[in-house]
Amino acid sequence: MDAPPRWLNPRQQAAWDSFIRMQEQLVGRLARRVQTDSGMSASDYLVLAKLTESGGRLRLMDLARLVQWEKSRMSHQVGRMAKRGLVAKEECSDDGRGAFIVATAAGRAAIEEAAPLHVDQVRRLFVDALTQEELDTLASLSNRVLAHLESQPD
Q1: Cβ contact 127:138 at 8 Å
Q2: Choosing a second label site near 55 at 20 to 30 A (CA), which of 61, 89, 92, 149?
Q3: Strands across the sheet with 87-91, in order?
Q4: Does some domain include residue 53?
Q5: Is 119 inside a domain boundary?
Q6: What's the domain range around 112?
Q7: What is the CATH number of the domain that holds 48?
Q8: What are the φ and ψ backbone dihedral angles of 97, each rounded to 5 degrees?
Q9: Residue 130 in contact with residue 122, Cβ under 8 Å?
Q10: d(CA 35, CA 30)
Q11: Considering the entire predicted model, what is its pTM?
């Protein structure tokens, strides 16, 4: 017989509900603003940001791991971005099965234009709502949950 569910108590439920509402509203507002300001989707922005932060050239699987996506999702996203000229695929000379994803000049220009607008929104909607001590606590708590997630089976 299965063990009964371990329901959340009211304080745990309130913390979880608040976290989810905050995360969904914040991500939603930032995604809409990136789209409005730059014409890029939040996915375009994330891929270009991680790609350019890493030097502008990564293997597809490394990029997928970096943004925590499945290979198929990354392949579809890269395909859409390549059609718009934001990224290009380059064959990997030492591994015929692999490919590098490279930020194009247009992709670099797009992220360079979008990033200052995005960081202004992150600051306005998130950073400015908290003290530095609260930000440090949030970073510590987030890192603790991330470490816990790594220790748990998927």
Answers
A1: no
A2: 149
A3: 57-59, 99-103, 87-91
A4: yes
A5: yes
A6: 40-151
A7: 1.10.10.10
A8: -85, -25
A9: no
A10: 9
A11: 0.86
Torsion sign (Cα): 95, 99, 105, 108 = negative
Q: Which CA distances in Å does 102 have to 35, 55, 98, 150?
A: 22, 9, 13, 29
- pLDDT tens-digit readout, 21-67: 999 999 999 999 999 999 999 999 999 999 999 999 999 999 999 99
CA angle 87, 91, 92 (to 5 degrees): 115
Q: Is residue 22 part of a domain?
A: no
Whether 48 and 40 have beta carbons less than 8 Å apart is answered as yes
- Contact by Cβ (8 Å): 47, 78: yes
Identity of the amino acid at 126? F
Q: Cα separation of 100 and 98, whole Å?
A: 7
Number of domains the chain is built from: 1
pLDDT at 2: 85
**Do residues 121 and 30 lie in contact, with contact meaning Cβ atoms separated by under 8 Å?**
yes
**Residue 145 is assigned to a structural domain of this protein:** yes
Contact 63, 50 (CB under 8 A): yes
Q: Which long-range contacts (CB under 8 A, 24 or more apart) does 38-45 make?
A: 38/110, 38/113, 38/114, 38/117, 38/118, 40/110, 40/114, 43/77, 44/77, 44/81, 44/86, 44/110, 45/111, 45/114, 45/118
Give CA–CA dist 62/124, Å, rounded: 31
